[in-house]
Design a protein that fits this description.
about 70% helix; about 120 residues
């Protein structure tokens, strides 16, 4: 395998494109022939992929905020129906899922460490 620093500028850009594409779309590009792309072609595509990443981040932040609202509503519901406090409600949810707090965050789409901070 050739070290990144030993690649030509266009080869480096092609490598960067693959990484950036994956960041934007979640998968590596398939069937995209970049062999005749210029530096300008890559720069334009990087700008486009950057816009996609920004949009994805916005949607992820919105989803995370909604997950927090949903989770806190569930905790409130559990407190209204028997849990003596929020800690008990969270413990019940952990027991229902069969794993710890980090897993509960994952299952509910909460920010990582939301329940341990």
């Amino acid at each position: 395998m050739t070290a990144y620093a030993q690649l030509t500028v266009l080869e480096q850009l092609a490598s960067d494109y693959s990484d950036f594409y994956k960041e934007a779309h979640g998968v590596r590009p398939h069937g995209v022939d970049v062999s005749d792309w210029t530096e300008e072609d890559f720069r334009k595509e990087f700008a486009h992929l950057g816009d996609i990443c920004k949009e994805n981040a916005m949607y992820a932040a919105q989803a995370e905020q909604q997950a927090i609202l949903d989770f806190e509503a569930k905790c409130l519901h559990l407190m209204q129906t028997g849990a003596k406090d929020r800690a008990t409600a969270i413990r019940w949810l952990c027991e229902a899922e069969g794993n710890g707090l980090d897993y509960l965050c994952y299952v509910w789409g909460l920010p990582f460490r939301y329940l341990t901070n």
